[in-house]
Amino acid sequence: MSALPPAVASAVLIRPLVASDAGAYKALRDEALRTAPDAFTSDYESSVDRDASEYVARFGTVESGQFFLGAFDAAGQLVGCLGCEREQRTKQRHLATLVGMMVAPHAQRQGIGQQLVAACVEAARRVPGLAQLMLSVTASNTHVVRLYEQAGFRAWGLLPNAIVVNGVGLDKLHMARVLTPASNDRTS
Ligand SMILES: CC(C)(COP(=O)(O)OP(=O)(O)OC[C@H]1O[C@@H](n2cnc3c(N)ncnc32)[C@H](O)[C@@H]1OP(=O)(O)O)[C@@H](O)C(=O)NCCC(=O)NCCS
Q1: Which pLDDT value is given to residue 109?
Q2: Which among 82, 86, 108, 172 is least buried, having the fewest CB atoms inside 10 angstroms?
Q3: Where does the chain have alpha helices with state H?
Q4: Which residue CA neighbors atom 28 of ligand 1 most closely?
Q5: Domain 8-128 carries which CATH code?
């Protein structure tokens, strides 16, 4: 009985976040907002006093297309996460946006970000009716742009001065990736 659970990827276990993860998620998020203010539209000062329970609704369920995946290290510590938020209006329910991509500073550059994006794409393509993922990324964070390009995302537009951080305007690159339905996996 040595088979690994399907979501184990090298050093981390990737699984959907649930209500009991809210405290760890808040700690990870607050740290990311504090250490990488250029990367996020939310800011640390407006977030640090929020109660962890406020985030539980975001965790959703994979089946609904509104979900958050967490990456857990061998000690069971949450070291990274990535969310998927599906559009709700009828004409846009084929679209979802990847949000809140972060890996704890001590765990970065070990391939966890790449694994989170791949797991999110894989989960999203199994959601009935979901056909395209979108995201936005601070354009000057070229290593993050490259990470998304390697996962199949392509830039389609640039919003100049999308966020202002410490008085400096930063552009956001908008990217999209078409999802191949999971049913296409089957060979005839
Ligand atoms: C962006 C982030 C999630 C990437 O996570 P990660 O686990 O470090 O990424 P990976 O280890 O999977 O690296 C993926 C690629 O990015 C490169 N990379 C990662 N961090 C890098 C850095 N600081 N500088 C240069 N390249 C970097 C890696 O070398 C790798 O490239 P390769 O496949 O060509 O070797 C993480 O750096 C982070 O949390 N940053 C702060 C928040 C942020 O920018 N979020 C994104 C919001 S859109």
Answers
A1: 95
A2: 108
A3: 22-35, 44-47, 56-59, 112-124, 142-150
A4: 109
A5: 3.40.630.30
